[in-house]
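To whoever is on call:

I kicked off a structure prediction for a single chain this morning and the downstream step that reads the tokens threw a length-mismatch warning. I double-checked the sequence; it's 281 residues and nothing unusual in it as far as I can see. Pasting both halves so you can look.
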Amino acid sequence: MLSCVNGAFSERWYQVAVTNGKQADRLEAEWGDIITPDKMADALKAKSYEAVTIVHNETSTGVENPLKELAAVVHDVSPNTLILVDAVSSMGGVKIETDAWGVDFILTSSQKCFAMPPGMSFAAVSDRALERAEKVENRGWYFDLLRLEKHRIKNSTPMTPTMSLIWALDVQLDKMLAEGLDNRFARHQAMAERVQSWAVEHGMEPLAPQGYRSKTVSTIKNLRGVDIAALNKFLLTKGMRLSNGYGDLKNKTFRIAHMGETKMHHVDELLEAFEAFMENM
């Protein structure tokens, strides 16, 4: 398989592959850069792969990889290669056309744009991925796609589900549909633009390049040397906080999430508090 790696969570997916005994090659970009369609095409022309893994929205770097374009390259250059996508921090906040783009497997979780407690994962699987699964002898039990699909069409689960979260999901989906998906996507984009333009105005540009900046979480270069621990201590007195940079980006960047049920007034309140803190630095 070919693992696209340009941040902490795409690196983790590569490690998942390796620790499960899979033969995995890396297609790398610097943290903060995207995986380009040209790089993908070159890798697929050089070698045949059963599957390619792509993290759509790198939470560590605030990069949104160009999934539509990358999927198109895979279908054009290596049409038998399955496209596997991590959309943990984008699905529900960004429009993703799984069928139109030919994505074979896409996964997400409950605690990001769905704005629920952690504990559930959701996935969509293509027909050809299910057909490919039939040829795999040791599929395991818990993550056997064929077993899961067999139960799905009977409206059941192969094991005891987390019923409390299923009821919470029912309520949250009603809220999401009442807002309207296009309105929800537009709200996420507007909040992202607000945070990212504020950062530039205050001398701290986003890590990701223009045009590929996440709509759900912004990773900002800490060019003003803000003490993130002290900032969060201050913010917590106002009932809010932000995240330090992830891994090697700790203290070099900070991250502001604008996803789920976060509204523009929440973003404004955070940025106003951030400004107040910087005035006393």
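Update from on-call: the warning came from a stale cache, not from the record. Cleared it. Sanity check on the structure: The chain has a mean pLDDT of 97.
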